[in-house]
Design brief:
There is one protein chain. The chain is mostly helical and 110 residues long. It has 4 helices and 3 strands, in the order E-E-E-H-H-H-H. The protein has a 3-stranded antiparallel sheet with strand order 1-3-2, with no helix packed on it. The two termini are 18 Å apart.
């Protein structure tokens, strides 16, 4: 992922922040790219899907297809990332790398 600096504000933030600088809630992320974060999730999914089977595998494959879809809107992507995070959390240590990159991607979704 690109170099990222995160700043936390203790009050409302306003102003011109520039390209690839985002304020979400009280967090200011500089240089963070949501699409790059989603690609990191997809890369982890590709690794994980070769190792698991059953209902989790099916759900994660559906989620990967939704994230790869070019017509997936921002809210749908966020919902898909949340679904991936729930599955990864329930699976425990086996999916902890997937959970990590998914949480990073969720932080970048407005």
């Amino acid at each position: 992922m690109a170099d990222q600096q995160e700043f936390k504000f203790h009050g409302p933030a306003s102003g011109v922040f520039g390209n690839q600088r985002r304020v979400t809630k009280n967090n200011f992320n500089q240089g963070a790219d949501p699409l790059e974060a989603i690609n990191a999730v997809l890369s982890q999914l590709d690794i994980v899907l070769d190792r698991i089977d059953g209902p989790d595998s099916y759900e994660l494959r559906l989620a990967a297809n939704e994230l790869r879809s070019s017509d997936t809107d921002r809210n749908t992507r966020k919902n898909v990332l949340e679904r991936i995070a729930r599955i990864a959390t329930a699976a425990g240590n086996a999916l902890s790398p997937l959970l990590k990159v998914t949480k990073e991607a969720l932080e970048l979704m407005p």
